[in-house]
Amino acid sequence: MLTQDKHNAQIYNLHGEAITQYQLAKYLNKAFSTDLMYTPMSGEDYRKDRTAELGEFLGTVISGIYQGIREGKADNPSHFYEAAGRDHKSRQTYFAAVKANV
Which of 21, 26, 37, 60 has the smallest count of CB within 10 Å of its CB? Predict the structure, then answer.
């Protein structure tokens, strides 16, 4: 991207298909032979947890990011193909490669 003028002044969203936290835990468990479980939390409980762990500033920032995700503020089209010239790897393909290299 740095060597091609067509990317100058472009803004790209470089993500693949959205997955849930439950799906992420499933993929991680399969790749790393773990037994992770996702437990949903309210936004306020998450803010308190992150603040206790990271301090007021970072806890507020991190919880704000997740609140925005819950509200759909990160739901946008991907420009991965336009930027990379290929499709984004599927989650199955990515985590299968991770598992093969563990």
Answer: 37
Mean pLDDT taken over the chain = 90
Side chain identity at 33, as an amino acid letter? S
Residues of the chain with pLDDT under 50: none
On whether the CB atoms of residues 19 and 95 are closer than 8 A, the answer is no
Give the pLDDT score at 90: 87
Q: Report which of 16, 14, 12 is spatially closest to residue 90, judged by C-alpha positions.
A: 16
Integer CA distances (angstroms), 42 to 5, 29, 66, in order: 45, 24, 11
What is residue 53's predicted lDDT score, i.e. its pLDDT?
96
Closest of 74, 91, 86, 72 to residue 31, by C-alpha: 91
